[in-house]
Amino acid sequence: MPEEQKPKRHNKNLRVKLISLGAVVSALIVPMVVYLAYDLIKTKMSPCGGIFEQTASSFESEIEFLKTKGKIVLGSNKIADLTERAQMTALNMETCCVVFGAGKRDPEKFLQCKSSAREYDGNLKQVVTVVKQAVRAEAKKASVALRKARRDLDIAVKATQVTSKRFNKQLVEARQNQAIAELKITPPAEVTIDAKEKEPNNDSLNTNAVALEKWVTGAIGHNRDTDFFVFVTPANHRDVIKIDVENRSTTLRPRLQLYGADKKYLNETYSGTHGANLSHYFVAAPKTKFLFKIANYDHGSRGAYLARVTPTKSYDAHEPNETILSAGTLELNSPVEAGLMDGRDVDYFKISTGLNAGTLSIKLENRSASLRPRLRLFDGNKVYLAERYSGTRGANIALMQKNVHGDRSYFVQVHNYDNATAGDYTLIVTIK
């Protein structure tokens, strides 16, 4: 091969390598450009989307310093308070952005929100400065300087609390005004409103008490907003309780969560449909306190609503008879109609034999397709004698007891076979 052709081949190979390298670089750059462009468009389309993260990140260095260096000087309680208030300030900024449309609805109030967030940031920085002074004074065993630093520290921490509370109040008023405006837009048809929610009520320590069978108005004003309510069930009867949430907007996707008096989560009902109503049913003991929380289904919707707690009076005429001490009276040869509301419901009846003696017969006729029945018999001293049950849903059962004497008392317990079924029944007792 001639010598003059060698450089040409070398140039051709270099061009191939450069083209291949260019293709690889393009393959890497194009997705990156697309991603950055999408992220930029997303931010412009949803200006409030990243404001929580932006605000929270501005407090990160101060909070981290206080957690690592300020624990001895401040104490864990104050550090926890400062951390929670920093989180709350970030949430308030997001709420403010939503309520005021990123400044488009009311620019002045949106600027006030930003000013409050900056003020809290300044307070936090002052706390850090004084903590550093206290740490240095303690290291040098300068007692006078340490006492002054602790006094200044109390003042600085209180300033953060004042700023945080003022910011909360500002947002509460804004949300209330927004909720009122939404309620006016969609007035309820033939519904008497008895009360309005009072903020703050966004945690289990701040709840609104609601009266039974009365409508209360409320509103979920931003993505992380929640409303807590508390009520007490009626005295005397175990009953099915119904909680209604009537949507007063076309935007809110509602979620209702139920808690016990100890704030333990029990169960919930929700809907992913915008503007949907909810009804939540549960069985409750008499004179018992419950809490319920109304929020949005996916942290992505808001709107106004009505809420009401209603006892359904689903108990039968023989209630309360859940214990042997509260047993209802059952006459011989007289059928009684009753029912078990849920798997935990129990009915007790007391029988007096009078002058009758012989074989006592207890018959349960199932009036449901769900109840798997169980019968138990006790003597007048509440001592267990016998039982009969069926694992078949809707089955009828009978229990016989021989050699029953006159002038005696007996107790009959009606329950379900597996603590999981319920239904109506008819009970009759005879002696032959």
Characterise the protein shown here:
This protein is α+β, with helices and mostly antiparallel strands and 432 residues long. It has four domains: 3-42; 51-185; 193-311, Jelly Rolls, CATH 2.60.120; 324-431, Jelly Rolls, CATH 2.60.120.380. It contains seven helices and 19 strands. Strand 6 (254-260) and strand 7 (265-270) form a beta hairpin. Helix 5 packs antiparallel against helix 6, helix 5 (76-99) runs parallel beside helix 7 and helix 6 (107-139) runs antiparallel to helix 7. The longest helix is centred in the middle third of the chain and has 43 residues, at 143-185.
| Mean pLDDT rating | 83
* First-last Cα distance: 125 Å
The proportion of strand residues reads 25-35%
> Class by helix and strand content?
alpha+beta
Task: Outline the biggest β-sheet.
Answer: 5 strands, mixed
Which strand order do you get reading across the main beta sheet? 1-3-10-5-8
What's the short story on this structure?
With 432 residues, the protein is an alpha+beta fold. It is 38% helix and 29% strand. The strands form 4 sheets. The chain has a 5-stranded mixed beta sheet. Strands 2-4-9-6-7 form a 5-stranded mixed beta sheet, with no helix packed on it. Strands 11-13-18-15-16 form a 5-stranded mixed beta sheet, with no helix packed on it.
SSE diagram, text form:
Layout: H1 6-45, H2 51-58, H3 60-69, H4 71-74, H5 76-99, H6 107-139, H7 143-185, E1 193-196, E2 208-209, E3 215-220, E4 227-232, E5 239-247, E6 254-260, E7 265-270, E8 278-284, E9 289-296, E10 303-311, E11 328-329, E12 336-340, E13 347-352, E14 358-366, E15 373-379, E16 384-389, E17 397-404, E18 409-416, E19 423-431
Parallel strand pairs: 1-3, 2-4, 11-13
Antiparallel strand pairs: 3-10, 4-9, 5-8, 5-10, 6-7, 6-9, 12-19, 13-18, 14-17, 14-19, 15-16, 15-18
Helix pairs in contact: 2-5, 3-6, 5-6, 5-7, 6-7
